TrEMBL record:
PANTHER family: APRATAXIN (PTHR12486:SF4), APRATAXIN-RELATED (PTHR12486). The lineage of its organism: Eukaryota, Metazoa, Chordata, Craniata, Vertebrata. Residues 80-185 form the HIT domain. It is found in: Nucleus, Nucleolus; Nucleus, Nucleoplasm. Residues 63-76 have a biased composition (Basic and acidic residues). Residues 16-82 are annotated as: Disordered. This is Aprataxin. It comes from Lynx pardinus. DNA-binding protein involved in single-strand DNA break repair, double-strand DNA break repair and base excision repair. Resolves abortive DNA ligation intermediates formed either at base excision sites, or when DNA ligases attempt to repair non-ligatable breaks induced by reactive oxygen species. Catalyzes the release of adenylate groups covalently linked to 5'-phosphate termini, resulting in the production of 5'-phosphate termini that can be efficiently rejoined. Its EC number is 3.6.1.71, 3.6.1.72.
Amino acid sequence: MVNELYPYIVEFEEEAESPGLETHRKRKRSGNNDSIERGAAQEADSHTGLEPGSDPGQCSVPSKKEKDASTKKESLGHWSQGLKISMQDPKMQVYKDEQVVVIKDKYPKARHHWLVLPWASISSLKAVTREHLELLKHMHTVGEKMITDFAGSSKLRFRLGYHAIPSMSHVHLHVISQDFDSPCLKNKKHWNSFNTEYFIESQAVIEMVQTTGRVSVRDGMPELLKLPLRCHECQQLLPSIPQLKEHLRRHWPK
DNA sequence: GTTCTAGAAC
DNA sequence: GTTCTAGAAC
């Protein structure tokens, strides 16, 4: 029953693209136009678009217990595995070295929002041990380099950290500017995941691993996501997301 | 993680 | 009546 994950073999020179991952996306939204097409930009949006239920090829799914090809393909196509695919795509890679790769978050929650991922397959913080200490430090250093290289002249403040309970598989360090000026930031969960203890500072993770050899995540994390909306700069409570977003403007750097 | 939308909140 | 949130997605 052990799920065998494929090794992340990466060719540094020229990565062969895998065609056929793309699916039709004929769906149209009728209602609001949420011009989401900013950060992810050009072709960034083109893959990983595996919408459940929109698989035109197979309408009939008779048996539910097939452990072979179909199941494996499905697990890789599942949305929670999206980072594993994106990080391999040269078009998505903003930076890479022997240990890590950086991509832009597909749905950035601020003007700058990168993800730093190790090539090594580490499913989550739960799997982190002292053996990963230097790797974690390197991820942090690379995150800081992203800031100086791509936002050095901006006055934006940044935070580096991990979600206590990430939705996406594969350990990833968030590097995010603190303007939270993005159309992709839409709900309370988005806000609280970056502005409560749900967001664990990279430095804290490093120190935890250094001293205890692992990362302990406190209880009650899911509840944090439901807390009232509070401004991270002045602590003011805001009654709704639209009002929070309007409020945030006053803290933007000039 | 996102989309979609019913119905709560205003 | 419109805005906004929150839960399902087979």
